C-alpha cells in the first residue's frame, strides 16, 4: 500500500509541470472588436465579481469566524451551566446527608441520655447490695 502511494506521488510529480504566470495583459475592447492577443473575455458583471472577490471572501470568512466564535462561546457557556448544575446538586446532596447525620447524632445522644437515666437506679441498687455484702462479710469475719 505504501509503495503504491509513493509511486502515484512520484508519477504525479513527474508528469505534472508547474504553471508559470506572467504579469498578464489588459486591454479594453469595444463590443465586437478583436483582441490583439489570445484572451479570455469577461463582461462587466464577471469583471466586477473578479475585482471584488477578495473583499467577498474576506467578509465571508469574517462571518464564518464570528459564527464559530459565537458557537464556541455558547458551547463553553453550556458546559459552565452544566458544571454549575452538577455543583448545586452535589451541594444539595451533601447538605441532605449532613442534616441526616445531625438528626441521627441527636437521636443517638437522646438514647444515651435515656439509657443513663435508666441505669442510675440499677447502679444505686447494685452499690447498696455490694455495700451491705461487704459490711455483712466484715461483720461476720470480725465476729468469729
Word description of this protein:
The protein has 144 residues and is an all-alpha fold. The protein has a domain at 47-115. It contains two helices and no strands. The chain has helices spanning 2-15, 44-143.
Query: How far is the N terminus from the C terminus?
Result: 117 Å
Largest sheet: none
- Report the average pLDDT across residues: 80
Strand content: under 5%
Task: Indicate the structural class.
Answer: mainly alpha
**Tally of contiguous helical segments:** 2
Instruction: Report Rg.
Output: 50 Å
The overall strand count is 0
> SSE string, helix = H, strand = E?
HH
Helical content, roughly?
Answer: over 70%
Outline type: rod-shaped
pLDDT < 50 runs, ≥5 residues: none
Question: What is the compact description of this entry?
Answer:
The protein is mainly α and 144 residues long. 79% of the residues lie in helices and 0% in strands.
Keywords:
144 residues, mainly alpha, 2 helices
Tell me the layout of helices and strands.
Layout: H1 2-15, H2 44-143
Amino acid at each position: 500500500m505504501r509503495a503504491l502511494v509513493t509511486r502515484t506521488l512520484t508519477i504525479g510529480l513527474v508528469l505534472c509541470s508547474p504553471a508559470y504566470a506572467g504579469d498578464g495583459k489588459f486591454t479594453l475592447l469595444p463590443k465586437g472588436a478583436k483582441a490583439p492577443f489570445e484572451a479570455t473575455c469577461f463582461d462587466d458583471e464577471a469583471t466586477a465579481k473578479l475585482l471584488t472577490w477578495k473583499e467577498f471572501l474576506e467578509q465571508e470568512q469574517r462571518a464564518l469566524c464570528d459564527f464559530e466564535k459565537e458557537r464556541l462561546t455558547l458551547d463553553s457557556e453550556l458546559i459552565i451551566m452544566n458544571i454549575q448544575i452538577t455543583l448545586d446538586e452535589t451541594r444539595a446532596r451533601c447538605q441532605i446527608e449532613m442534616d441526616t447525620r445531625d438528626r441521627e447524632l441527636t437521636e443517638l445522644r437522646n438514647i444515651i441520655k435515656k439509657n443513663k437515666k435508666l441505669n442510675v437506679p440499677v447502679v444505686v441498687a447494685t452499690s447498696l447490695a455490694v455495700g451491705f455484702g461487704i459490711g455483712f462479710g466484715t461483720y461476720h469475719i470480725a465476729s468469729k
